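Moderator note: this is an archived Q&A kept for reference. The question asked for a predicted structure of one protein chain; the sequence and the answer are reproduced below.
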Amino acid sequence: MPPTPSPARPPSARTPFGHALAGLLDVLLPADCAGCGAERTQLCPACRHALTATRPGPTLLPWAHAAAPYADPVRQLLLAHKERGALRLAGPLGEALGRAVRSALGARAGAAPLLLVPMPSARAAVRARGHDPTLRLAGAAARSLRRAGLDARAAPLLRHARPVADQAGLNAAERRRNLHGALTVLPRARRGLAGRQPVLVDDLVTTGASLAEAARALADAGLPARAAATVAATAVHPPGRYG
């Protein structure tokens, strides 16, 4: 009997080489829109508009602003970038994140050089995906802010200090308990950062528990972040209404 073929790896289990190859093909070959499936364009005008149509606003955390609601096609764009290696989406998603940063800071946006601090990804997740999507978005957002005339850079200052349980199915209070003390700041965090204004960034905010834990870790290290920004949120509120 012929040997049984090995099962295909799911996208989330790609090797780093596989993701590098996917990224190269992503640049060289036309692809369908990751948001709606429109042919021969990875981001169609309608889906690009969905990233920019909503004015960034506060989430369940008043100090954390999001660029768009977490609904299709924005949801599909984030998943394509994060899980399927659609690396060219980092540019437009980073621009949306940059708008959320400016919204969260308001008049403070130009008061001091900005330091975008991405939420850390677990090492196992980075290995499985072949890239760190949040760090990539932070870098794209920093470039977008620099094009707008702001002094901004991104730096991965946070890491996991202990394992945490799967957040799926946990309510807000349970997520806070699960995450408390889970993050810490890298020892090198203070080097060359004097005078910079830390801003936490992530792709998505739901209950805000992860951002709150990250803010605690930064504050304990003497780097308080007074604002956070995400590409999308499950709940976006008009200014002055925080739910």
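Archived answer notes: The mean pLDDT is 85.
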